[in-house]
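User: Assemble these into one structure.

Assistant: Restating your components, then the assembled model:
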Amino acid sequence: MGERGERGSEKERRPVKAAFDGAKRSRRLKQVVLGSIFVVLLVGGWFYSLVGYFIPLCMVAGVGLASVRGRKWCNWMCPRGSFADTYMKVISPGRKIPGWLRGTPVRMGVLAFLMAMLVFQIARLWPDPYAIGRFFVMLLTITTVVGLFMALFLHQRAWCSICPIGSLSSWVGKDRYPLDMDKDACVSCGLCAKTCPMQLAPQEMKENETMSFKGDCLKCGLCVRACPKQALHFPA
Ligand code: SF4
Ligand code: SF4
């Protein structure tokens, strides 16, 4: 099928594009605010260590929200995710995140290592709240530096593929608020995959029952708005 047939006529495309641009703008604005707050928290944490407690708060909020809405927290509410999509994106070549990096063994390994370190350090520093806060800030700084390197060589959201909060949210919220497809409407144009910030491929649902790494869907809705055939939707 030709480009015009697949993506619709110019007249059909116009409202789709307007809705897509609007959604992208609104997401971007929220991410700029939260991404900037992330920088303030990270720098501020080195001067006032109690700021570090925002990490466990993010963990509880992210995984808690995942139990109802999937990985929605990581879209723009997570300050580091927003930092990745706004600031890290500038330095990233946007390469494909390898499948093995997003696979369960690597994610489990990173989660187990960081959790073990967390428990060990909290037990060691207990009951000094300032020392524990400092440890959180240190952990945030180190993982952010790792994320920056991953962005520099791979993709701005590469860290999000192995982030413990992201992995837990992805497992807990895998079947929550799922993206769905009207298979008859889909023309396999691939615009959904092209727009996905997590490099997911919603068009896979045309052939399979599901898409790879579906737990990583941020419920951002960009693919829904980008689809020229309105083939994608979330539950009402
Ligand atoms: S679901 Fe994706 S591949 Fe299918 S028509 Fe919509 S944008 Fe194109
Ligand atoms: S699959 Fe769609 S809703 Fe999910 S992260 Fe990708 S673009 Fe956003």
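DSSP finds ten helices and two strands in the chain.
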